[in-house]
Design brief:
454 residues, 2 domains, disordered C terminus, three-stranded antiparallel sheet, alpha/beta, eight-stranded parallel barrel
Length: 454
């Protein structure tokens, strides 16, 4: 596979500022996200990213607003940057997802991506218990099967342009049911959204556990995973890509997306000082609760801060019902002999990559992972922080561009083009193509229905 450019992503905003905006009658809760989106597009970042949370978070509002609605709004104030929306398959129906994500691809002219998650929280808001990890990933796999079938339910030639000034022409016989009958869903189809600009949104799977890696190896174009060290990255990516090859996936897929929790400074001394200040500011009691969650809900309150955590405190993965991947990541750290204090500090980055240094040193770290084949998409923070923006954009990004690792401008109109993804397999040509019908000649809607035009 030819050497790729590094794709770039940044968070679209959020945080406690959303709460302040919510009570300010002169503002709106998307103000910060709009500001970051415009800064990111000006810096030629490839895509914006929004997480999603399904329960109240007293520590902040990141992800509290609906990710799809947020991205639809940002589509109207941007024109080139991609829009990565996080949506769970555990509490959503695939027909609804296909319509919503397909609509986002239309309103953004082909800039949408779906970060598929299976959720480890929020079941209390949907009237049931959280399914097992195995069931969550089985449902996710079937959801992908259904949504992809729905997006592909319009055969080539089903919708064609009319003559200048004339309506589009629809061949209804080429819009075909999918007739899906599976373990979780029965969906007749076809989709009632026209063919998408990208045919399908770019598909990202958030994966860490064995079940997640299997799903990503089978289906993902991009996998978003926590890779705190190069050794871990080589292990996880080796297993993931090895399985993808066994399944007949193209070489180099899925792409690997890492979150870059970097501490950046104009000098190495400044970067180290900033990291130490951040560590000194950690609330160790609250931080221990975060670590306990990372380890599957264990109780560590009886342990001394500066003593290693006993390995027997780490639960067996098969007994963990939530976030097995994080248990695996932090279980490795426990096995390495880290103290409770060190683990609490590490948990602030939730198992993600957290290097420290100048823009040049961070660029070296990025290149090392790229050359090792374990980094294709980098999620960068700090664009919206006035104290960091210049170091990130004019420092790190510019250094990577000087080294030929990051493009200076967008490569195309769609996110697929900008992330240099291989073309989707061609849909089979229909065996017969009856005459098309102008949309104005279609039967009138049933009583009470309304026809919308785009």
């Amino acid at each position: 596979m030819a050497r790729r450019h590094l794709a770039t992503v940044t968070g679209a905003g959020g945080g406690p500022g959303v709460y302040a905006r919510a009570v300010d009658p002169a503002s709106h809760t998307l103000a910060d996200a709009v500001r970051v989106a415009r800064l990111a597009e000006e810096a030629r970042i490839d895509a914006l990213f929004t997480p999603d949370l399904l329960r109240f978070n007293a520590q902040g509002a990141i992800g509290a607003q609906d990710s799809l609605v947020t991205m639809a709004a940002l589509a109207l104030v941007t024109s080139r940057i991609g829009l990565v929306t996080t949506v769970t398959t555990t509490f959503n129906h695939p027909f609804t997802l296909a319509r919503q994500l397909g609509t986002l691809d239309h309103v953004s002219n082909g800039r949408s991506a779906w970060n598929l998650v299976t959720s480890s929280v929020g079941e209390e808001n949907y009237g049931g218990e959280l399914p097992s990890p195995e069931d969550r990933y089985a449902r996710a796999a079937e959801t992908l099967e259904v949504t992809n079938a729905l997006w592909d339910s319009w055969a080539p030639g089903a919708l064609t342009a009319g003559a200048p000034g004339e309506p589009a022409r629809l061949n209804p016989s080429l819009v075909r049911p999918i007739d899906h009958h599976g373990r979780f869903f029965d969906v007749a189809g076809p989709l009632n959204v026209p063919p998408l600009p990208q045919r399908r949104p770019v598909q990202i799977v958030a994966a860490q556990s064995a079940a997640g890696i299997e799903l990503a190896a089978r289906h993902a174009e991009v996998v978003f995973t926590a890779l705190p060290t190069l050794d871990v990255a080589l292990d996880v990516v080796g297993r993931l890509r090895g399985r993808a090859r066994e399944l007949g996936r193209p070489e180099g897929l899925p792409l690997i997306m890492s979150s870059f929790h970097a501490t950046i400074g104009a000098t190495e001394a400044e970067a180290l000082r900033l990291r130490q200040e951040r560590r000194d500011a950690v609330d160790l009691v609250a931080g221990r609760a975060v670590l306990e969650d990372m380890l599957g809900g264990v109780d560590l309150s009886d342990l001394a801060l500066d003593e290693p955590v006993p390995v027997e405190r780490v639960p067996a993965l098969e007994t963990v019902g939530r976030r097995r991947g994080r248990v695996e990541v932090f279980g490795r750290m426990v096995a390495e002999g880290l103290t409770l204090r060190e683990l609490v500090i590490a948990a602030q980055d939730t198992g993600h990559w957290a290097p420290v240094g100048t823009p040049e040193q961070l660029a070296d770290a990025v290149e090392e992972r790229m050359d090792a084949g374990v980094l294709d998409v980098l999620s960068i923070s700090g664009l919206g922080d006035p104290s960091r923006h210049e170091l990130v954009v004019d420092g790190l990004l510019e250094e990577l561009r000087l080294r030929g690792r990051v493009r200076r401008d967008y490569a195309g109109a769609t996110l697929r083009e900008n992330w240099e993804l291989p073309a989707l397999a061609a849909l089979p040509e229909p065996s017969a193509q009856p005459a098309a019908t102008e949309l104005t000649d279609l039967p009138a809607p049933a009583s009470g229905d309304r026809v919308a035009t785009r």
